[in-house]
Amino acid sequence: MQVNVTKDGNRVVILLSGRFDFNTHREFRSAVEPLVTDGGVAAITIDFSSVEYLDSSALGMLLMLRDRMSGAKKVVTLAGVHGNVKQVLDIANFGKLFQIT
Question: Is this structure's pTM higher than 0.85?
Fold first, then answer.
């Protein structure tokens, strides 16, 4: 998986591409950890438009991100979900936990 972080003012977009699974937890964690303590960041969008697969460990990483960001009073949005990724998020009821656009 590739992770591309773009900051625009107080908003950050994290563009993921490829497979989002257990093998990519280090890359994901390295990208999001600095955002938790960055006082200039108020909102984070995870862009799934180039993600072709995600597994249960990816769901767990998203939940940990949500909890950490919520504790820091920051909003996490999921965007660009489609196909199998959308199905997995729907089955896991992530629409109740995240704003999905």
Answer: yes
